[in-house]
Amino acid sequence: MPKKFIEMFEKNVFSSLATIMEDGSPHVVPVWVGIDGEYIITAGGIEHVRHANMKRDPRVALTISAPENPYEVYLVRGKVVSMSKQGGKEFLDQEAQRRWGVQEYPFQKKKERYLIQILPEKIIDTSSVIPDGVDIR
Fold this sequence. Notes:
With 137 residues, the protein is α+β, with helices and mostly antiparallel strands. The chain has helices at residues 3-8, 49-56, 88-100; strands spanning 14-20, 26-30, 34-36, 39-45, 59-65, 73-84, 113-125. It has a single domain (3-125), classed as Pnp Oxidase, Chain A (Roll), CATH 2.30.110.10.
């Protein structure tokens, strides 16, 4: 993964996750993401549509953008390599504390959460296509 891409995760990035519905149509949802070694990680519950989609078809796409500049965007295509019952709640709690200053993710409602590992296959830095000298903010 490019260094600039990894450094972006030190910020409260915005991300959308696209999965593939059974009929082939896209399903896109906002998610919190992090980096764990070679993986992009996120979390979710078994009740989410995205869980069934990723279980059936591991191909996903993400957009990840910087909070201070929504035009600083990375496009990621990859595959889900793991959906583990361990770590999902902890990831959401950690992100809720970092982003909102609360100890626990407030939407848990005692539901089981999965930690999802995505292996990026292609990472595209869209800021590289902006001509030098152009300020798009």
